[in-house]
Amino acid sequence: MAALGIAIGLLFSLLCYLTTNLSPGGMITPGWLALTLIEDLQRAAMVVGVTALTYAGTKLMQRLMILYGKRLFAAVVLLGVVLQATVMIVLSLEFPLLYANETLGFIVPGLIAYQLVRQPKGPTLLATASVSLMAYIVVAAGLLLGIMPTI
Known about the structure:
Blueprint: H1 2-20, H2 29-39, H3 41-64, H4 69-94, H5 108-118, H6 121-145
Helix pairs in contact: 1-2, 1-6, 2-3, 2-6, 3-4, 3-5, 4-5, 5-6
Keywords: Membrane, Plasmid, Transmembrane, Transmembrane helix
Organism: Streptomyces clavuligerus
Protein name: Capsule biosynthesis protein capC
């Protein structure tokens, strides 16, 4: 199911990019967000919060150092990974059973924040939300109709 969800998200991301020239938070992000919305709404909310922190941290870093190109990408994704890992560690200490097996999604906040830095914020958020919603609808419909494998 995860591979198909990511593939559906990739297809919608590519269509979005080709028609609007906007990246919806990275190519894998909508598929991953759609799967996360199906599996755990709290984790999706956490990704939104960490994305906001990553974006704010990136804006602060840009005031302190020169970041562009590959250095900007690496810095934003690394900051997102560090923040996501920190939140996961803190939450796993407070709620050990809630996030016991979370290993994916550490780069998604960084990918979204990177696109927010590079592109206009409003259209990027709209593209990310709409493409993720389309992927969610297709994956959820596939699960409900029994045509999407669950194992």
